[in-house]
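MFS transporter structure dump, as promised
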Amino acid sequence: MADTAVGGSLATYRAVLRLPGLAPLVAIGFAARLPVTAVGVFLTLHVAVGMDRGFAAAGLVGGAVTAGVALGAPLLGRLIDRHGLRPVLALCGVVQAVFWAVVPLLGATALVPAALVAGLLMPPAFSIVRQSLAASVPAEHQRPAFALDAMSVEVTYAVGPALGTLVALTLPGTGPWVVGGAFVLATAALARLDPPVRPPGVAHGGRPPRLRTWLRSPMLVALASTGAAILMLTATELAVVAMLTARDETAWFALANTVWCAASLLGGWIYGAARRTPPTAALLALLAAGSLPVALGGPWWTITLLLVPAGAFCAPALAAAAETVGRLAPDAARGVATGLHSSALMVGATIASPLAGVLIETVAPWAAVVGASVLVLVVAGVAAAVTGTRAGSRTR
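structure tokens r here:
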């Protein structure tokens, strides 16, 4: 039975990767996302360690980048809808080249507004891949395609920050130029590939549909589910770090995080190959419920084991939400919709950090996991009520 299941899974993903242009999209998309995921940790170390300005100043710079990405993603999506992919990538590539060229010349104060602009015009590698999947992958292959994307993102977030740390610590003088060069190469590769971001026969330009015609409760629920999933993951990560630090076992975080990511990859693999899966609201609830036992963690090995059920529903919840956004987005506004999806990811992480921090400082690390789980369960309940109500109204 297990061999058959594995064989069926492999056949499912082989069929997806055989779709025209999909294998290059996955490979180049993975590479293009690496510098994006390395930015936060690189700038933090550049300011806090390289410039010796401390982590408070580094936090302002990192926050500026995050705010810029959250605000810029839907704006870049709108430009892609109107003008196509290559002009937007050219603009982003030039801005990143200029920003990273002057980073060594800027002080910490000047870096804040510069980082905000760089975030606003960060190459939308995450959105581009998801927009292309939604526009070009047939409906019967969408679930494994988005699951494959979610698994790719897991690996990206494991590799990118590690590379950013390595560059920041080993190349303190020329590190920004290395990051900038990676952005230029990644942007050029995406522009060269020029993946389809609209279905065949649908041209760019024209009057986009009004927001109120498609940004309704189903889309808002999918975006809220995206933000809630990231909130759960971020709060869990911070709580685990705090738990291990309190027991002087911080060195074990790398192993715990690896197990967590592996469980997510396995969950994403199973989700993508399954014939029938739970709705997004149910997966979100399972993510919250699976993460809740982490609050009971003690020594490093118990935390590592408890992260397995927490990780099992990470990739499925994120893949389901991304697939829903892609399905609900109108063709002429698909860029805006996927941009809003990226913004929802940023907002979820932004809310999680101070929320978890306050609970860790004022109560205990376990409180961050419990608080995030309760909040995510509320979002899942609202999502289930909204989608259930709409499903019921269609049957009457």
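The radius of gyration is 21 Å.
lmk if u need the other ones
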